[in-house]
Amino acid sequence: MNLEKVIFGFFIVLAATLNFGFFIGDIGRPELHNIYELAAALVVSLIATALKFGDRTQIGAIHLSTSLVADLQLIAAAITWGVAEHITGVGMTVHVTSSVVSLSGGALVANIVSVVILIIETVMLRR
Amino acid sequence: MNSAFFLVLRRMRAPIIVLIVIYAISVIGLTLVPGIDAAGQATPPLSFFHAFYFISYTATTIGFGEIPNAFSDAQRLWVTICIYLTVISWSYSVVTLIALLQDKGFQNTLTTNRFARRVRILKEPFYLICGCGETGNLIARNFDRVGQAFVVLEKEELRVQELDLQDFKTDTPALATDARQPETLLLAGLKHPKCRGVLAVTNDEQSNLAIAIAVRLLNPAIPVIARARSPAVKANMASFGTDHIINPFERFAEHLSLAVAAPERFRLIELLTSLPETPIPESHRPPAGHWILCGYGRFGQAVADRLRPTGITLTIIDPNSTAADQNIAGDGTEARTLLEAGIKSASGIIAGSDNDVNNLSIAVTAAELNPRLYVVTRQNHTANTPLFEAFKGDFSMVPSHIVAQESIAILTTPLLAGFLERLRNRDESWCKQLVERLQGLCDGLTPTVWGIRLNASEAPAAWQTLMHRQAFKLGELLRDGTDRSQPLTAVALLIERADDYFLLPHDNFHLAAGDQVLLAGPLSARRNLELTVRNVNELEYVLWGRDDSGSWLWQRLRKGRAPAD
Q: What local confidence, expressed as pLDDT, does residue B231 receive?
């Protein structure tokens, strides 16, 4: 059993599940999307990225890039939320909410790709 | 770059994860703890935006106070915990990063990467100097003076640092590493398309040999110049086709014997091969007759082999050699030994051991015993130059100088070898005349010797004119570019055309495209002529006195205004 793989797998899958939890629900209704779930998804995604730092294998590099994409999408979603609440002051309108949720949906796709790569890697190793 | 970047990432992995986790806990905590307003009523907790803002400036110990409103005591309790957590995690990251930057291996990776990158982006032809001791440094300084790019590999870190302090005009890539490693040579541009040659001038025979064979195998197209002190290594290098092997001992012995046999010719060779723009060396006139040779190592043997054919008889003093005169005990540093060797009646002495102090001692003792003696000293270390200068011997042999001079002469002017070849059947008076001409060129300094090939890349303007417009004579070209009534202070030594050589061509020699001209003169003349043969406008002025810019519009205007003739 490889502890590093366990930890990395845990964070990748957790990022995907949290992200899915945030994403699910009517895209335009803010009460169906918990901000804490978004925050948790972002943090876990960042940790997963950091775990792949310095991995020089081909598959490690792909992992790093996909999780960087997820980070980028989630950070964009968080900034959109913050701007709407504090800077423009429009609040969570249907338009803003749908932007935030669709951005997190993009991140979800990247997370799913990460999970698929993880599975491929596991199958490849056969150990 | 890549490897260093990945190393940073790998080392920073743990601190960054700690930082992310601590930030997350702190921010989420702040979004849960209720605040308080001025009236003492409970308000909702901070939003994510404000919480992240607050933690960002608190964690980095900037501290703007309690923003946006004064905190409740519950918030203060949580923030206290956060402050300790975040400051510890930041310090951990910073300490890790600093430790990494202090890491010797990491610094080496960085310097090696920087060196490799700088070699990669070199745009001009360069030489690779392996070993930057006395010889390498001399070569480097001269390359720098004539504006020739070069790359340095040197084992000693200190010497590389000294290179940085030497005020070179160009910023030279130098790396402290073992040049024997093939990877290192490749890193230093051995296969770079602009690499023109490799100089193996380390102070270690085996290293020079290893470098020579590595270059021969990895890039057979470029020349290798190697220093060899022992005949075995020299033969080894020659066996796989090293282009030039310089044995300073043999070379000096040749010089000394030539100076005995043909002093004027030797003087001419010395002038042409000495380092450019240095004070003209004194002329050497070693007498024939009976000589005493102290020290019969590799140097002594080379000298003895060359001097005997000139008719000089030798008494050899050496405590260990079987070839030495066994009746004489000692190494020549004591007066008794020298007297036994017949110093009173000798005409010359060679202090040729591998110990500078002993050589000086021999020279001083001998000069006291017989003031008319011609004293030849061997100087092993440049650091002892002041001592040798103070002694004022007749002829001093500095191995590093010999190797440096020869390397530079071979590399910068390949034609020179052809010229020296043709000197062999010239008499003394011819050589004497040429020496006097050359000595008058650059007031008291040695002339620079350089070659120009009149082709499209080296002399585009001259080549164009010769190919498509009209021929001109050598004397018309060798004119000052600032004032064409003045001739350029340079002597044309040789012109090579296909396989023909023209020695000391006359001013009315008709040049042709593709000619190679070997010239001697001051550095300023060299720059002057280079501009002339490269720039069409300069060339037109020098040849025909036309002083216009080559622009199309200007020429049209002139045609319009010029009277029809």
A: 85
Q: Given a cut of 80, is residue B322 above it in pLDDT?
A: no
Question: Within an 8 Å CB–CB cutoff, is residue B554 touching chain A?
Answer: no
pLDDT at B238 over 70: yes
Q: Is B81 on the interface with A (CB under 8 A)?
A: no
* Dihedrals phi, psi of B48, to nearest 5 degrees: -55, -40
pLDDT-based confidence at residue B564 (cuts at 50, 70, 90): very low
Model confidence at B152: pLDDT above 60: yes
Residues B46 and B76: their CA atoms lie apart, in Å, by 13
Mutate to test the interface with B, among A45, A46, A58, A68 (most CBs of B within 10 A): A46
Structure tokens at B181: 């490693």
Which sign, positive or negative, has the C-alpha torsion B354, B360, B365, B368?
Answer: positive
What pLDDT is stored for residue B20 in this prediction? 94
CB-CB neighbors (< 8 A) of A43 in chain B: 20-21, 23-24
- Distance (Å, whole) CA B398 – CA B401: 5
- Searching chain B, which residue's CA lies closest to the CA of residue A36? B28
Query: Residue-wise over B12-48: b if at least 16 C-beta within 10 A, else e?
Result: bbebbbbbbbbbbbbbebbbebebbeeeeeeeebbbb
Q: Cβ-count burial of B6 within 10 angstroms (0-12 exposed, 13-18 middle, 19+ buried)?
A: middle
Q: What is the DSSP string of B450-468?
A: EEEE-STTT-HHHHHIIII
CB-based contact B217:B197 (threshold 8 Å): no
Helix (H) / strand (E) element for B356: namely helix B356-369
Interface of B with A in 533-552 (CB under 8 A): none
Q: What gap in Å lies between CA B465 and CA B469, rounded to an integer?
A: 5
Q: Is B1 on the interface with A (CB under 8 A)?
A: no
Whether residue A35 and residue B48 make contact (CB cut-off 8 A), yes or no, is: yes
The whole-angstrom separation of Cα B354 and Cα B362 is 12
Question: Are B13 and A86 within 8 A, CB to CB?
Answer: no
- Minimal Cβ distance to B21: which of A47, A78, A81: A47
Is the link from the previous residue into B487 a cis peptide, with omega within 30 of 0?
A: no
- Residue pair B350/B366 in contact (Cβ under 8 Å)? The answer is no
**Percent of chain B's residues with pLDDT above 90:** 24
CB B135 within 8 A of CB B227: yes
**Helices B263-273 and B399-412: angle between axes, nearest 10 degrees:** 70
| Rounded CA separation B28/B20 (Å) | 12
Closest CB to A43 among B7, B20, B31: B20
DSSP lists the bridge partners of residue B473 as B510
Query: Is the pLDDT assigned to residue B133 strictly greater than 90?
Result: no
Cα separation, B266 vs B251, in Å, equals 12
- Spatial distance between the Cα atoms of B107 and B109, rounded to a whole number of angstroms: 5
* pLDDT tens, position by position, B479-517: 888 888 888 888 898 898 888 888 888 888 888 888 889
pLDDT higher than threshold 80 for residue B14:
yes
Q: Rounded to whole angstroms, how far apart are CA atoms B557 and B239?
A: 66
Alpha helices by DSSP H, A1-127: 3-23, 35-51, 58-82, 94-125
Torsion sign across C-alpha atoms A59, A64, A67, A68: negative
Burial (0-12, 13-18, 19+ Cβ within 10 Å), A88 = exposed
A82 vs chain B: nearest CA distance in angstroms? 6
Neighbours of B84 (CB within 10 A): 10
Q: Does B31 touch chain A (CB under 8 A)?
A: yes
Specify the length of chain A in residues. Answer: 127
Q: Is the pTM of this model over 0.85?
A: no
In this structure, are residues B493 and B469 in contact, taking their beta carbons and an 8 Å threshold? no
